[in-house]
Amino acid sequence: xxxxxxxxxxxxxxxxxxxxxxxxxxxxxxxxxxxxxxxxxxxxxxxxxxxxxxxxxxxxxxxxxxxxxxxxxxxxxxxxxxxxxxxxxxxxxxxxxxxxxxxxxxxxxxxxxxxxxxxxxxxxxxxxxxxxxxxxxxxxxxxxxxxxxxxxxxxxxxxxxxxxxxxxxxxxxxxxxxxxxxxxxxxxxxxxxxxxxxxxxxxxxxxxxxxxxxxxxxxxxxxxxxxxxxxxxxxxxxxxxxxxxxxxxxxxxxxxxxxxxxxxxxxxxxxxxxxxxxxxxxxxxxxxxxxxxxxxxxxxxxxxxxxxxxxxxxxxxxxxxxxxxxxxxxxxxxxxxxxxxxxxxxxxxxxxxxxxxxxxxxxxxxxxxxxxxxxxxxxxxxxxxxxxxxxxxxxxxxxxxxxxxxx
Length: 407
Hints:
Elements: H1 17-28, H2 39-50, H3 57-80, H4 86-89, H5 93-100, H6 102-117, H7 124-136, H8 141-158, H9 163-181, E1 199-204, H10 211-224, E2 229-233, H11 241-252, E3 255-257, H12 265-278, E4 283-287, H13 295-312, E5 319-325, H14 330-342, E6 347-351, H15 361-369, E7 373-377, E8 385-387, H16 390-398
Helix pairs in contact: 3-11, 5-16, 7-8, 8-9, 10-11, 12-13, 14-15
């Protein structure tokens, strides 16, 4: 099978972060000004996202240097700074989610307030507008329809007449649906049961969503935890992808298995698995191509890689993680549906959640795809890639939007 960097996956829309974010900000700025990014925020965001969108090796290397250098400096500062009390170094998960979901919370609150601004009575027109509002908030079409249908009975049951009563009913119904859909959901990452065998995480996703950055940050997490970590540069088709992962390896101090561009990705993964077994690595993180000519080729390539892994390590890979860019909203949901068709995805990595007002996409992923979100990006720093906590997510997204009940 032959593939080139220009090969496309027609049915999997590539994440075009800058373009989508511009459209998102333009739409949401009509509702609330707080969601609009300042020029300084835009500049920071563009620096972070630039590395994944370059198609030539030289450009990719040049752009990647800057944010990685900044992150490297942060690590060096951490080593040189005298130790502080743990409470000053590590913010709580509640604080992280609160800050990381601030834009989504404001955006959703603004949309809800706009819906209720002209509130007169709860009738058929109201519920039609509610459906549109929820879809715009990226909770998903099916979820919006479900909430609208269930809420009609709920509002009658509560005899909700005031704006605050109706608003509370909407949010509480959202939370109820989200929690009921996740009763049997497993958000934890799974590791090799045999302590003598390496754990293998296979990463999939289109180019530009932060897949390689996620691998680098996760490698840093496990390396700091005392694990011996190995990376495999299995994306041999995109120009600059190998150098990008190799640079991450240098920055965080872990080994990377590479081959020249256009090499067989399965061959890279095979070498990495053999090395991980022989040299007693604890964790192997595998990068893969984000696009090939068509869906069939992508499926065949991913199947081949999984066969190579399973042949040497029958219980691996322990996770197949799909990276999605939260700033792309419904486009991320489309990507998830496509990748779910071509490979056995075990969980979602939702990147750039802190940089978007589209946090409602987590609701859509759970309710429409029934795929667990396992990791989320809540900031730009190395330790802002966090294990997903459903409870903290709900708190961070809806905090302050429900009217406190008076005694």
